[in-house]
Amino acid sequence: MRYFSSTLVGLVLALAAGSAQCGSVEPLPVREVAPGVFAHAGAIALMSEENAGDIANIGFVVGENGVAVVDTGGSVEVGRRLLAAIRARTAKPILYVVNTHEHPDHVFGDAAFEGSGAAFVGHRNLPRALAARGPFYLKAFRKIIGDRLVDEVRIVPPTLTVENRLTLDLGGRSLELRAWPPAHTDCDLTVFDPATRTLFAGDLAFVGHLPVVDGSLKGWLANFDALAAVPAERVVPGHGPLALPWPEALQNERAYLSGLANDVKGFIARGDPVDSAAKAAGQSLRDSWMLFDAYNARNATAAYAEYEWDP
Amino acid sequence: MVRSITRRRAVFALALAAAAGGGRAGARAGQDADPWPELQRLFFGGRPIVEDPAMVRFEAPARAEDAALVPMSFSAKPPPGDPRRVIRLTLVIDENPVPLAAVFTFGDKTGDTRISTRVRVNSYTNVRVVAELDDGSLHMATRYVKAAGGCSAPMVKSMEEALATLGQMKFRILPPTAEAPGEALIMIRHPNNSGLQMDQMTRLYTPARYIEKLAVHQGDELVFAMEGGISIAEDPNFRFTFKPNGAKEFRVEAQDTTGKTFSGAWPAARDGA
Predict the structure, then answer these.
(1) In what order do the strands lie in the sheet with B138-145?
(2) Nearest to A184 by CA among A146, A210, A154
(3) Strand pairing partners for B49?
């Protein structure tokens, strides 16, 4: 955390300066990672009032007829700044807002795009995940990012769901959406731009930030071969640096998750209880990751509960 | 038997009513009203309870990794030479919607059984293990646990998936240790719905349905019986120590709040041992 504090302070100062100067919304910094494909790198940090929930990578793709947004950030403030970044580059209509899964750092900015006429797009399981967890997230994150940011968050259910695959036509380019079996969550969706071979992997790809298991570790491990086979040149991971080579960007994540699974299976076989496993599983891989202590024990606990029923 | 179940369920429900009433409103408003005196009156008739860390051993995490799956481990044992016997352990989670989490009753020779289970914790709370000895005295250990949302956290699985496997049991004899010559694990697939979880499709609350009774026998000897409420986590999981008594098998019987029963029997010897 300390590693990032200076970056955060810098960001906050820049934000304050920006809003003081013009009074309008300061566009989110974005990088054109491929022609017409823009991405913003969120901080590798936990959501907080100070970072306004800006911890996930989000972006947009511009076609001839309009724009598709991929995730909206961890607050409406971040969503508005993403919208400002889009408007700084194109006046074309926003046709789609795609949510890669239901976590607050990816969907809390959705309300900034309501009323834009865009279709909200998600995995077939996203409606039930948002219905079940949305109210819980709004309550829990009030303590984490504060009243001011949470007050304007609205959970926006998708108007278009992806059963398995769906192609979105942006005019002159199309995006290939794919709904995955339970892995990071039970509603993971990836967005692939074949024109530039750029993949928005959502949180199926964590780089630097410890992967978080909130769906199925078994499912995640089972998905890897198919995920790595997506014919992308570069990936925008859900967390981590933008535009990394694909599928190499998956290597560390795969090593951590399979190492965690092996550790947990070993603890179960030896008859060690879940709390011992939570303390020790995955620890040999801690130096490769940021936010390890925030998530590893929880991952191990979830993995234990998943694997202990195996014959 | 039916009468006693009904009465016990009434006590579990009464606790909910008490929680919903004035006693807790103050705590929610941040006035830190301590619910314990009222809970002590409700569950123990106001009998004196001594904090007794030498008698009651209780391990609970100071901060829960997953509020819907908080591991807890507890046992009670009178000091050497003390002839008294532990007859019951009661697990109370003060700030949960139903604070009475579970009551474990032991057989004649099994009072020093150590139990490990997993509970839901709904907000920052004191958690207590109260041991009742055969002289009627009550001894307690208390831990403060930081966790939130465990009772209302939506299930990971869909209800259909949960119902498809409902009632499956898994039993394991674990390797013996210096502390415990025998230890075993019983797991039951059951959503243990708290009644506070919203159904993901209908947006209605899933009715409470949970394991309310469970009994483990080694041969004819009762190791422990449990009466539980909604604070026991999904897929109830109990690890327990035992003294091998020569019996050939363990038997487990359980019943949920719909009256559905689940049972199984397993060899008392360890696989491959």
Answers:
(1) B49-51, B138-145, B125-133, B86-93, B100-106, B221-228, B211-218, B249-256, B261-267
(2) A210
(3) B138
How confident is the model over B112-131, as pLDDT tens digits? 999 999 999 988 899 999 99
Q: What is the DSSP secondary structure assignment for residue B11, as one 8-state letter?
A: H
**Minimum-distance CB partner of A133 among B154, B189, B237:** B154
Whether ipTM tops 0.85, in short, is no
> What angle is formed at CA A297 by the lines to CA A296 and CA A298, rounded to 5 degrees?
90
Give the residue-averaged pLDDT of A202-211: 98
A293 near B CB under 8 A: no
Interface size between A and B, measured as CB pairs under 8 A:
62
Pick the CATH number of B2-263 from 2.60.40.2470, 1.25.40.10, 3.40.630.30, 3.40.50.720: 2.60.40.2470
How far apart CA B114 and CA B174 sit, in angstroms, is 14
Give the residue extent of every domain in chain A.
27-246
C-alpha–C-alpha distance, residues B152 and B91, integer Å: 20
**Amino acid B5: pLDDT:** 45
CA distances from A11 to A54, A80, A207, B178 (A): 11, 17, 21, 56
d(CA B157, CA A230): 28
Among B231, B229, B267, smallest CA distance to B249 is for B267
Q: Tell me the CB-side half-sphere exposure of residue A131, using CA atoms within 13 A.
A: 15
pLDDT(A21) > 80? no
CATH number, domain A27-246, options 3.40.50.150, 3.60.15.10, 3.90.1200.10, 2.60.40.10: 3.60.15.10
Which residue is associated with the tokens 């008392």?
A: B268
Q: Give me the DSSP letters along A72-111.
A: --SSHHHHHHHHHHHHTT--S-EEEEE-SSS-HHHHTTGG
Greater confidence (B187 vs B18) lies with B187
Q: Supply the DSSP symbol for B61.
A: -
As a whole number of angstroms, the distance between CA A68 and CA A93 comes to: 9
Instruction: Report pTM.
Output: 0.85
> Do B148 and A301 make contact, defined as CB atoms within 8 angstroms?
no
What pLDDT sits at residue B159?
A: 62
**B85 burial level (CB within 10 Å; 0-12, 13-18, 19+):** middle
Are A275 and B61 a contacting pair at CB < 8 A?
A: yes
B126: its two tokens: 């004191």
Closest CB to A273 among B69, B199, B239? B239
Q: Are A274 and A303 in contact (CB under 8 A)?
A: no
Exposed/middle/buried for B160, CB within 10 Å: 0-12, 13-18, 19+? exposed
